[in-house]
Design goal:
This protein is α+β, with helices and mostly antiparallel strands. The chain is built from two helices and 16 strands.
């Protein structure tokens, strides 16, 4: 391209010089000094210089066209090279790799990689439809996984809008932290805290049933007395007592089936009041 531009510059100089020479000969010819042969040579030189300029300009145009073709070829090669690179749309943790080195893949090959965006994991949990109205996005969730000493804290991300017609279960999507010691495919159970309150709670094992109605064995001055109770929220190993006993009352928390009304016992006290969460 630079060489062709230089040829155009030289051709323009030649055209200008030939035109000046022809102009001088025309003036001399009018004075009768220059011969016809000199005049004809000057005309031919001017025409030749113009022809060289046209040729040089065509060479530049051809070079520019070829440069455009070369640029298009380079872009196509770059596009083909780019198609050989697999780039993830986001940073994250690679969960599965289906791609093989050197393999040819197409649009129908399916996903080459499965990635957890930003390394975050998600628990897909089933929940009874009766509990769905009390759930909301952002609620704190404690996730327990077999083998872990303590639960992992997560949060409700999404509640599926549809309930399974057969199981009557809804689906809860729970976001878990990226540094959680979990693996995809782990079985887990989740507890969503709906209500937290300070209440009178007793060990669930201390509640007995007669004809389907709950009661506890209250200890009054060392004597066992069966007392009906109304139960509330259950949280783990404890259950809330709404009515029937008061704070400070003594009940038989263990071995209740081995004592009856009127039995005299020497109780060993233990804590029975705590926070109850549902």
């Amino acid at each position: 391209m630079a060489q062709s531009q230089a040829q155009i510059t030289d051709a323009k100089v030649g055209v200008r010089q030939a035109a000046e020479q022809l102009e001088r000969l025309v003036a001399l010819r009018k004075k009768g000094v220059a011969s016809q042969a000199q005049y004809d040579n000057a005309v031919n030189a001017a025409d030749s210089a113009k022809a060289k300029q046209v040729t040089a300009e065509k060479a530049v145009a051809a070079a520019e066209a070829q440069a455009g073709v070369n640029a298009a070829q380079i872009r196509e090669l770059q596009r083909q090279i780019a198609r050989t690179e697999v780039k993830a749309p986001a940073d994250g943790l690679v969960l599965a790799r289906n791609a093989l080195l050197g393999a040819v893949v197409g649009a129908s090959a399916g996903p080459l990689f499965r990635i957890a965006v930003d390394g975050e994991l998600e628990l897909q949990a089933s929940v009874a439809e009766t509990h769905l109205p009390r759930l909301a996005g952002g609620q704190k969730v404690m996730v327990s996984v077999p083998g872990l000493d303590r639960p992992v804290e997560g949060a409700v991300r999404l509640i599926a809008p549809e309930v399974n017609k057969t199981t009557r279960l809804g689906t809860l999507y729970i976001t878990l932290p990226a540094d959680a010691p979990l693996r995809t495919g782990n079985f887990a159970s989740a507890t969503v805290e709906l209500v937290r309150k300070q209440a009178l709670a007793i060990p669930a094992v201390s509640v007995l049933f007669r004809d389907g109605k709950p009661y506890v064995q209250k200890v009054i001055e060392g004597t066992v007395r069966s007392t009906p109770v109304t139960l509330g929220v259950r949280a783990g190993a404890f259950v809330e007592v709404v009515s029937g006993i008061d704070e400070g009352d003594q009940i038989v928390s263990r071995a209740g089936v081995f004592v009856s009304d009127g039995d005299r016992i020497a109780p060993v006290l233990e804590e029975a009041t705590g926070a109850v969460a549902q």
